[in-house]
Specification:
The chain is α/β, with parallel strands linked by helices. It has helices at residues 6-26, 43-59, 74-86, 105-111, 123-130, 139-150, 170-178, 198-203, 254-257, 271-292, and strands spanning 2-3, 33-39, 62-68, 92-95, 159-163, 187-191, 207-210, 227-231, 235-238, 246-249, 261-264. Helix 1 packs parallel to helix 10 and helix 6 crosses helix 10. The longest helix has 22 residues, at 271-292. The structure holds guanine (GUN). The site of guanine (GUN) has 9 residues, from strand 4 and helix 6.
């Protein structure tokens, strides 16, 4: 069994990005600029956004955090999006999800200029990805693809089972794994809440991608010997032995599943750091395409 070290791979790729940015700025170009919009006080969202801003600092990107109270109106948030769309010094921006209930996430996502949509959530970018002409691949799927690529994990002809059909992870992941590409060419099964027997589907998988958001959902009896297991879940479970009273676990029962796997990602230190890295990769790409030209 080999543990896929997303933390180390993230550090390696971020160092490559830092060197590239240093070269670009040394020749008189401005640094790439990523803006994150954070609404309200969701602690998980605040943690993710902080990690993204820290990664910008590490790699020499300019970063800006725009914070709005949870009672911000949809029209006020649309004004923020419009300003960022029009700002030539901003290469890419994200609006951290989820948003408060009174704001329609689709309306906000649709308002983002696809050229600056480094999350890859806009229908234009989603469509381009589905057609195999990607502009920006959503950060978490892009991070996973990059991991599989850098670890030289063979995907062609394999059976990939994705658990969860979210717009952010499960659905794009299922499309990417089935496309004709270096990481791809899988036969894909996308399982969800109406799947008759998820365990039975997962048992047939060479590659499992768990993105359902339920702690320890994937157990050892569900995993084929030699499978590759990618755990996208970040779930908080009570743990009195920890100072903060909880710990983070994935969607996979790591301890019991790991011995059966050829490769497995841990939580934390697996997919999470790769998501942040993929966001930087998208922003750098946007900067090179639209600022450097
Ligand atoms: N919420 C959970 N994951 C993400 C992400 O990748 N981007 C944004 N904007 N919100 C999220």
């Amino acid at each position: 069994m080999q543990r896929i070290d997303g933390k180390q791979l993230g550090i390696t790729i971020q160092e490559e990005i830092r060197q590239e940015v240093a070269q670009l700025t040394a020749t008189g170009n401005r640094a790439p600029h990523l803006v994150a919009v954070l609404v309200g006080d969701n602690p998980a969202s605040a943690t993710y956004v902080r990690a993204k801003m820290r990664a910008c600092k590490r790699t020499g990107f300019q970063s800006t955090l725009v914070q709005k109270e949870s009672d911000v109106t949809e029209s006020e948030l649309l004004d923020v999006v419009k300003q960022l769309n029009e700002d030539p010094n901003v290469d890419g921006f994200i609006v951290q999800l989820p948003l408060p209930k009174h704001i329609d996430e689709h309306v906000i996502t649709m308002a983002i200029d696809p050229i600056k949509d480094v999350d890859g959530f806009h229908p234009t970018n989603f469509g381009l990805m589905a057609l195999g002409m990607p502009q920006y691949i959503p950060a978490t799927p892009y991070g996973i693809i990059t991991m599989l690529d850098r670890y030289n994990i063979e995907t062609s002809g394999k059976h990939c089972v994705v658990i969860g059909r979210s717009n952010i992870v499960g659905t794009p992941m299922s499309i990417l794994m089935s496309r004709k590409a270096k990481v791809g060419n899988c036969t894909v099964t996308l399982t969800h809440s109406r799947t008759k027997d998820v365990a039975e589907e997962v048992r047939r998988a060479d590659i499992v991608i768990a993105a359902i958001g339920r702690a320890n959902f994937v157990t050892a009896d569900m995993v084929k010997e030699g499978a590759v297991v990618i755990d996208v879940g970040i779930n908080s479970v009570d743990d009195a032995s920890r100072k903060r009273g909880y710990r983070l676990v994935g969607d996979v029962d790591f301890e019991n599943v790991a011995p059966k796997c050829s490769f497995i990602t841990p939580v934390p230190g697996g997919v999470g750091p790769m998501t942040v890295t993929a966001l930087l990769m998208n922003t750098l790409e946007g900067y090179k395409t639209h600022y450097l030209k």
